[in-house]
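Long-time lurker. I teach an intro course on protein structure, and each term I like to show students one example going from raw sequence to a predicted 3D structure in token notation. This year I'd like something fresh instead of my usual example. Would anyone be willing to generate the tokens for the chain below so I can use it in lecture? Attribution to the forum is fine with me.
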Amino acid sequence: MFVVPERFNRNSPDVQQLAPPADTGLWLIEYMCERIGISSLDGLDVLDLGCGVRFADAIVNRDILLKSYVGIEVEKEIVDFLTENCPDKRLSFVHFDARHPIYNRGGASLLGDAELPINHKKFDVACLFSVITHQIPEDTRSLLSILRRHVRDDGRLFFSATLQAGDFGYREMFPETPTANSVYTPELLTTIVEASGWRILSVEGPAPRGLPIQDSLLCAPA
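-- Reply from a regular --
Happy to contribute to a lecture. Here you go:
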């Protein structure tokens, strides 16, 4: 067993009550595969931006098939723990020192031409779970633009977001804590996705079959 210290479990209390992180991670990976239209990640290279620890926990402890997995995270303590303790050589982890108002205030400004510290490696699947839910529009566009350079032309991007209808474009659910929950209209997020080099294949609302995920979008390179 690969044991992840509880202090690294950043899921909300509601999600933590559902099941252990390895199980919720497994469910989300299975859901992502379902949306992509594949039975599993077997044989695929996966890039997980804003990885946390849950998917590493699931891949190792729930025997998930894949070719390789690169987790990218702004919190260096998490990257250091995973690098030193994850026993599965298919998995690797990289620190991305990008500024975030909550998670990495001292990082570098996030720009669309920023380089991920993974050379020019490309992937079949890129995902962001609970990442765009914590980004201002400029940073969302930067992240999606960066990922486009690392996904193969026949690859897929899958990410979650908080969507609401209206004419506001973007707002913060909690204005006193910017990026605690960033809310987008479908129209604005579509504009950002397309300007970043992607096209949307499908959108599904929050909590399908009770899964711990907000609205989710499946995209392909434009």
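Some talking points for your students: The two ends are 41 Å apart (CA to CA). The chain has one domain: 18-221.
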